[in-house]
């Protein structure tokens, strides 16, 4: 049996502060706070790929939705409350509900080739760096004649 213990009690002046912390942690809080609490992310670049991992344990993969508008990637998912007939909840700390997270992507990423996969509760999004943004080496050619710009003549101005 699990027992929830509140060291301050509901009559304590600290009780409302702890309820506010619960809200920020995603238990009835704002959408933004719930998104960050319910969808933590790691992101990095490796080679020519930008990769982001989102923790979404217990989420039905069919509820995950990714969309791109301009340079904004929006990820939405839903974690449903388990429907247990006759259950009397003793503790309910795991967040449930709808979650949304947005990332503003750099223009150097090729969002047309974005790939996403979901495995063991982790959503992985991979976006290749656009060809035009990849580093490239430019060869400098040697000529025997100096370059000139046609139509530009430098004239001395007399006062």
Automatic annotation (TrEMBL):
One Pfam family hit: HSP20
Domain of life: Bacteria
Biased composition, class Polar residues, residue ranges: 140-159
Domain SHSP intervals: 32-143
Region of interest: Disordered: 138-159
Assigned protein family: Belongs to the small heat shock protein (HSP20) family.
Protein name: HSP20 family protein
Protein species of origin: Klenkia brasiliensis
């Amino acid at each position: 049996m699990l027992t929830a213990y509140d060291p301050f009690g509901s009559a304590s002046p600290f009780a409302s502060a702890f309820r506010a912390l619960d809200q920020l942690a995603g238990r009835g809080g704002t959408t933004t706070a719930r998104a960050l609490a319910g969808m933590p992310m790691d992101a990095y670049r490796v080679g020519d790929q930008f990769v982001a991992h989102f923790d979404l344990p217990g989420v039905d993969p069919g509820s995950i939705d990714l969309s791109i508008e301009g340079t904004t990637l929006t990820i939405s998912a839903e974690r449903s409350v388990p429907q247990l007939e006759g259950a009397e909840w003793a503790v309910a700390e795991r967040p449930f509900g709808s979650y949304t997270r947005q990332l503003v992507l750099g223009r150097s990423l090729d969002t047309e080739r974005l790939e996403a996969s979901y495995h063991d509760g982790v959503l992985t999004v991979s976006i290749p760096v656009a060809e035009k943004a990849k580093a490239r080496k430019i060869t400098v050619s040697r000529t025997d004649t100096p370059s000139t710009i046609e139509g530009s003549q430098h004239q001395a101005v007399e006062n």
